[in-house]
Amino acid sequence: MSSATPRYPLLALATLIPFAAGCGRSDQPKTESTSVGATPTVSATSPTSVDSEASEVISPVSYATAESAFGEGRYPEAIQLFTAYTGTHPENPWGYYMLGMSAWKTGEHEKAVNAFDQALQLDPSHRKSLFNSSRVLLEARQPKQALERIEKALTLEPMSNEGMRLLGRVRYELADVDGAIQAYRRALTIDERDVWSMNNLGLIYIQQGCSSEAIPPLARAVELRSNAPVFQNNLATALERSGYPTAAAQAYEAAIAVDSTYEKASVGLARVTGGGQQPESTAVDLTALSHQFQTEIETWRTPAAVRPIAVPEAMESDSATENDSVTVSVEAVSDSVLVSGGPVSETIDECATEADL
Fold first, then answer.
1. Which CATH architecture is the domain 158-357 placed in?
2. What pLDDT, in 10s, does the model give residues 183-239?
3. Which CATH class is domain 48-124?
4. What span, in angstroms and rounded, lies between the C-alpha atoms of 309 and 50?
C-alpha cells in the first residue's frame, strides 16, 4: 500500500547533517498471502475487534475484500469488513490501521483513534498509524495529543518530510508560529518539491500579515502543480493583499478554470475586478519569485538560516485574526466558511496533506 522509504538514524530536529541511508522497513501490510509464520507472535491479550459490527458481515472476510471497499469509497461497508477481518486476524496491525482509516473517512474520530491505537499496541513503530492518528486528532481539535504522536513518529523517522509537515501544522495550531515555520522549512529541505509545505508556509505568512512573503512559496507551488485550485486561490489572495490586483485576477481565473464550482475563487475574482482597484504600476514576475524561493530553500540547510518572521507593524491589520475558527479538512480544503463579498481572509484555503495510506 505504500512505497518503500529508507530509514535513517535518530537525528535531532534542530539540525540537518549528512547521513548514510539504511535499508528496508517493516510497515508493509500483511495481506491474506502472508504466511502464518511471517506474522508477529502476540499474547492472549492482543487487541480484538473494535466493536461488534462484524455480526452483520458474513465471515470470513479477506483483507483484499475489505481494502477493495475502502478503495471504492464505500467507507461504512469498509468499517464492517475490517471489523470482521480484525476479529479473525487480531495479529495483523494493518487490519486495525485500515479500520482506523475507514472510520476517519466517515468522520468517526474516536473510533478511528481507537483503531489506530490497536495497531500501535501490536506494533509500536507503526509509523502510518502515528501520522494518521495525529491527523485525526488535529481534525478533532486536539493538537497537544497530536503533537505527542508526531514527535514519536519523528524519533522513528527523523528525516520524514511528511512528519515535519505535520509538525508544522500542529505547531501552528498551538500558536507556535516560529516553530511552524521552522518545521515547514525543514520539510522543504528534505523534499524541495513538497507543495503542501509551500502552501501551508505561504498561508502562515498571509495570516500573519506578511502577504508579500507568501508569494514566492505559493508561486513555486503553483509552478509545480498548476492544476491545484487551492494553490492558485491562495496565491491570488497573497497577490491581492500585496497590491497586485491584476495578477490576483489571473490567479483567481486559473483556479476557476480548474474547478468552475470554486466559489471562493469566484468571490475573489469579483472583488478584484469589481472596480475601485487600481492596476499595479509594476508587474510581478512570478517565475522569478518561484526561482528565488528554490534558491532560498538551499540556505535553510543550516540551522542559523531558520529565522523567526517579523510581522511588519504597518501590515498587522492584514492578519487573519479568525485563525482559530479555520477548519482543516482531510485531503482537501476548508470550504466551510464562505460569505459572498466577505473579507479577504475568508477566501484563504488552509490545506492538509493527503492521507498517507
1. Alpha Horseshoe (1.25)
2. 999 999 999 999 999 999 999 999 999 999 999 999 999 999 999 999 999 999 999
3. mainly alpha
4. 45
